[in-house]
Design brief:
There is one protein chain. The chain is an alpha/beta fold. Strand 2 and strand 3 form a beta hairpin. Helix 1 packs antiparallel against helix 2.
């Protein structure tokens, strides 16, 4: 049996207490074992593909399979390493705004550009970027199906745990209050 705690990737952190791997901020088109990914059902694969690639700058990594009607069964998108997203055509209606929110790391300097790109597509919605109470600046982008992607970038000066109202952390589990 493999130890998932130490089996992150060839570039990721390994071992208990190791620092988490930082995402590589460039398109990595290699096919690696994805430690986490999300799959979103969408009404119109072409419209969603345009929104995620043109608006959010994600890279079309692969299209896979064919459905009975000959259309694509799955689209694999990637932004940075470990920021993978799969889009699949919905078999029926998509419930808008089901509460799903995906969060992805970003650089502070790219948030305004992302907001402009999303707005230019004429699809979906965008809010921010705006500072949060926990030391990040967040851009909230909602796709045409109501799925929300938050791009979150650390502010230059992040508050420490003692500065955050109502903040608690189980430091006995190995977490650091000043991470």
């Amino acid at each position: 049996m493999r130890n998932t705690e130490t089996d992150v990737s060839d570039r990721g952190a390994a071992g208990p207490g190791a620092a988490p791997a930082e995402p590589v901020e460039s398109i990595d088109t290699s096919m690696y074992r994805m430690p986490f990914f999300a799959t979103l059902r969408v009404r119109d694969l072409d419209v969603s593909l345009r929104w995620y690639t043109e608006g959010l700058g994600m890279h079309l990594l692969a299209t896979m399979g064919r459905r009975d009607d000959g259309t694509t069964a799955l689209v694999h998108l990637r932004r940075w390493r470990y920021q993978d997203l799969l889009l699949v055509p919905a078999a029926g209606p998509v419930e808008r705004g089901s509460g799903l929110t995906l969060s992805m790391a970003a650089r502070l300097g790219e948030l305004d550009e992302l907001a402009e790109r999303v707005t230019r597509t004429g699809l979906g919605e965008v809010e921010g970027p705006a500072p949060t109470g926990w030391g990040t600046n967040d851009l909230r982008a909602t796709d045409p199906d109501g799925n929300t992607v938050v791009f979150t970038a650390p502010l230059d000066s992040r508050p420490q745990a003692a500065d955050l109202s109502g903040f608690t952390m189980d430091v006995s589990a190995g977490a650091s209050p000043d991470c």
